[in-house]
Structures are given as structure tokens and as C-alpha cells.
Amino acid sequence: MKETELTFWRASVYGSLGLVCFLGLWELAIRFHLIDPFFLPPPSQIFTRAIRMTTGPDAVLLSDIKISASRVLAGFSLSVLAGVPFGLVMGVSSVVRATLNPIISIIRPLPALSWIPLSMLWLGIDEQQKYAIVFMGCFASILVYTTDATMRVDPVLRRAARNLGASDFQVLRYVILPGALPDLLSGLKVVLAIAWTCVISAEMVGANSGLGFRIWTAKEWSDTGQVLVGMISISVTVLILDIAFRGIERLLLPWQRKASGT
Amino acid sequence: MYYYDPITLNSFLSELKNARFHFTLVMNARQKNRDFAMKHFLTVITIVLIFGLTGCKDEPPKHKTASIHEVTAVGSQWYGHIPVWCGMEKGIFKKHGFSVKWHFIGKSMDRLNAISSEEAQFASIGEIAMLSAMAQGNKRFYWVGNQDIAPGFEGLVAAKGIKSFEQLKGKKIGFPFGSSVDLTCRMLLKKNGLDPIKDVQLVNLEVGDVPAVFKTGNIAAALIWEPGFSQLKAVDGATVLGLDTDTDVYKEFGTMTGPDVLIIGKAWTDADPERAKNFMRAYFESLRWVKENTDDAVKLVAGNYILQDIELIQENMAKFIWHDIDDQKRVMSDTGIFGQANYVVRILHEDMKVIPNKPDFMQWVNMDILP
After folding, report:
1. Do residues B230 and B266 both lie within one domain?
2. Of B178, B213, B355, the CB nearest to A125
């Protein structure tokens, strides 16, 4: 079968149609009593709930999104600041790589949730603890993505730069960093989504604000509608952040933009 | 105008041919591997079936016998679950034809969700969680009893240096949201002139985390029920600022803010009401045993189900009032827990605005299955 490339608008129309059909089927399934609304409230009810949580005297949704987003950005930025330089060093130095690899291998598989008991003891239940959970969930992944991206840079280019008299810093600045950047940014995009799962875990315990707190509290009051509003808010926020990240990607990788002709 | 180089094209075509040849070889090899794997897969399946069938021949599965019904009961470390533990340990459930499996689930709402999912059949939970679920339209359970009353087992404990409610202004208070202590906290604060929303910061904590977070000094005050309540009181310099017995609920109805209630899966009950009735008979027989043999019951649960000193459990159990089967008609009435539930529903809906309506909880009450 011949695969044809869809235009942006056509793809958007298909996407919207798919979404409308999905929501319609969901609504109908509940209206025709195929699904118990206690288990899954209909989209119309979730929409009404979202409106109530966004406007009026009890509006908390927007401030929760803001609080969670700021926690994500703080923890994520800290892990980028620590993970990228470390990853670059590990990527270029086999000695550092060999030394740190066992430690990274131990930390990397630990889910953010497993850090909660210790982080509460070490840092309490304030903002630092939430940042720390996001940091611990993101740091090792960023480190690994950066190391891999650095190692994938063509060694011929590195050697050529050296033969032409480039210093270590110049090789790093003009060869390794631009070469690793596309892979690194793709990795960061993935880790940013992971950061959201971390912040939600962090806010479920010892918090009084944020989307995770809102979802968890709704669960305690058996309010599945609010749980779903919280979940959809996370998806929408991550989507918006993803679009913003793509903008940054385009800004930092002008040569890719030229290559793709956009 | 474009020209093609015939040498380059030829070599390209030759490469393509080679690639196709390799592709065929690879595909043949993959097919052979697939045949080999399928053959082995079938052999393994046959062996497993043979072993499985012959293995089952001598020993019929115990849980499939007609007289034994499997029941999953869920609960926490709270004293209100003692009748289930003793019923299991003393063989009372077995005598009535039930094999009861116990699962630890700390929070009432999580226990109720386990019942709603039909993975568990029986639980004792806090009344607040039950009323919330009713208000949200969860019709997957019946309310079948109120097995105990234990006022004074939960309260607001303040950290060192805090001696009055006034001193809590602007500080953090931690407890599990959506539980009885949620209501106790808000009622105590209001009674002492503090607005729970504006004057203090309420922090949601997991049941098991409350004592640890309080000990580390991250919150100024905390609320939890036993056994955590004793741990809070034991912290150096801690002061009990208020108990559930200081609330209007206790003064009006003589109960804690969120008494223990018994719930049972609706689908499980409707499928065989007689079985459910037998189960409740076994449960209340076990409760009566606990009531009549409190010291033995304490010995049985200490260290196994409740991780507290035996002396402390004994002391607490002496204050515990059990409602056995003969008491149910009296306590499950308008002058008993129903009146209290109406009062609590009003607070949850009108004052706290945490439930969307005032549920008619009588729709969930099923006294027919009580023996």
C-alpha cells in the first residue's frame, strides 16, 4: 500500500475526528448503562467538573497546575544542571565512565516513589522534598541519555578537530556538544514526561497543593470525576510543555530545521 | 539535465540483488527457527498438561470443595478488626464453612474500593469513607453493622512548645484526609476559634507516615487513631490538645466522629444471601468470643496483627465497647448510628463541601443478612 504524507491540517482533522468518536463512544457507553458512572464518569460530567474547578469560588485547578509545573521545572532543571555536565564527562572519559557506571546502575532503576520515605525523613514535607523526588527520578536518566549522546558523536570528527589543533574545550564546545545535542534533546523530552510522574508521586504524600495532591484527595473522598480532571490536566500540561520544548529544539538545532526544510 | 553513471547504477543493482538474496536467506532461517520453536512449544505444553492432569488426580483442590467458601477480608492495624483476626485464628470462620484470607489495606476508602472491585468481600471501615462513597453513587456494597464504639482513641497532638490551639495559627497539621480524623480535626479547630482553611495548613499524610513525620518536626500537630495515636503521644514534649470526645458529635451521639461500620460486597451477597448470612453469623460469634475472652484475644493479636506492647493493647481494649449481634438492632437505628450519620452527612455536605449530596444511606443498609 502506498503511504502518503498527510498535511498538517488534514492530520489535525483526522485527529479531531478520532477524539470526538472516542469521547462520543465513552459518553454513550455510560448513557446506555454499559459502564457504571461511579467507576468512569462520562466526559460531559468531567467537563462540567473541570469548569467548576477552574472558575468560581472553589477554583483550584489552575493554581494546582501552576504549583505542580513549577515543581517539575525546578526538579527537572536541577537534574539537567547536574546530569548534563556529568554525562558529557562520562561520555568522553572512559575512566570516569568505568568509575561511575556501577553507582549509576544502582540508582537508575529506583522509581521516584521509593525515595519518598527517605526524602521525608531527610528533607521534611516542604518544597525541597518535592524537588528532590523529581530530581532523583530524572537525574540518572539524563545522565545516561547525555553519556550515550556524547558517545554517539562521530569519533572521526573529534580526531579531525584535534589534528587541526583544537583544545579539549574547543572539541567539547564545537564538536561534541552540537553533535550530541539532537539525541540529548530527544532524551530530555522523554525525561520531562518522567518528571511529571515523579511530581505526582511526591504530591500524593505530605502535600497540600498540586495536581497529585488534588487527585489523591479526590480518591479519599471517592470523587472519580475529580480524579479524572486531575489526570486530564496532567496530560494537557505535558502536551503544552512538549510543544514548548519542540520550539526550544528548533531554536537550538537550526541545522536540522534547514535539513527538513521547515 | 541529469545523467546517470552506468557503472554506479550497475554496482547499486548488484548490491540490491545481494541484499535481496540475503533477505531470502534470513527469512528462510527465521522460518526454520519458528518451526523449531513451535515444535518445542507444543512439546512443553503437552508435558505441562500431562503433569498437570496427573498431578491433580490424587489431591483434589481444597478450595473447590462445596462446603468451604473463600472470603477475602480487608483491614488495617486498628482494633476494630480484632473479631476477624480472632475468627481466623480460633477457627470460628472455618467451623461455619469459610476460609477467610486477610489483606492489609491501611485506608478505609481503599478497603471500600477493594470491596467495590469485588476482589474482597468483607471489611470494617470508617463511616466517613462509606458516606462519601454513597454520595458519589457507589452501590456495590451493603452496610450491615456497627461493631464497636471507641471514643477517645484519636485526637490532635501538638509538638513540643505548642500548648494551645491559638499557637497552631499558620502552622501545618498532618493527618489522612477523608478519614474520621479529618472531621475531628476540623471540628476541634472550629470549636477553638480557628478556620481550618485560612488559619492553618492541612497536610494529607498516609496513615503509617503520620507518627514519623510528626517525630521529625515537619508538622506542628498531627491526628491519627490507634496504634499511631499512642506513638504521637509518646513523642518528647507532645501535648494532646483535643480528643474526638471533645467534638459535638460525641456530645450529641456518644460516638467518635467516624465510627467503625461493617460493609459486605453487594454482588457476593446477592449471589447467595444465605452464605452471606452464615458469614455474618460466624463474624458475630467471633466478636462475642473477643468480648468474653478479651485477655486471650489481646494475646492472640499482639505482635501478630497489632504491633504494640501487650500492656498498651490491654489498656486500650478495656475502653473498647463491642456491639454484638443482639446490639445491632439498637445501634443500627435512628436513635443510634443513623442519627449520627445524618448529622455527619450534613457537616460533610454543607460545612466541608466534600460530598456532592446528602445520600439516603438507608438504601445501602441491609439488616436482612444479620442472623
Report:
1. no
2. B213
SS3 B309: coil
ipTM (interface predicted TM) = 0.71
Q: Closest residue of B to A123, CA-based?
A: B218
Contact between A67 and A210 (Cβ < 8 Å): yes
**Phi, psi at residue B137, to the nearest 5°?**
85, 20
CATH number for the domain including B101? 3.40.190.10
Residue B62 CA: distances (Å) to CA of B1, B162, B217, B238, B282: 85, 58, 52, 52, 20
B257: region left, alpha or beta (phi > 0 left; psi from -120 to 50 alpha)? alpha
Q: Which of A200, A216, A221, A229 to mutate to test the interface with B (most CBs of B within 10 A)?
A: A221
For residues B236 and B159, membership in a common domain is answered with yes
- The parts of chain A modelled with pLDDT lower than 70 are 1-4, 256-262
- B50 in a domain, yes or no? no
pTM: 0.76
SS3 of chain A: helix, strand, coil, percent, to 5: 80, 0, 20
Residues lower than pLDDT 50 in chain B: 1-10, 12-13, 16-17, 19-26, 48-49, 51-65
Q: What is the pLDDT of residues B50-86, one digit of tens each?
A: 544 444 444 444 444 457 999 999 998 889 999 999 9
Range of B120's domain? 65-150+258-363
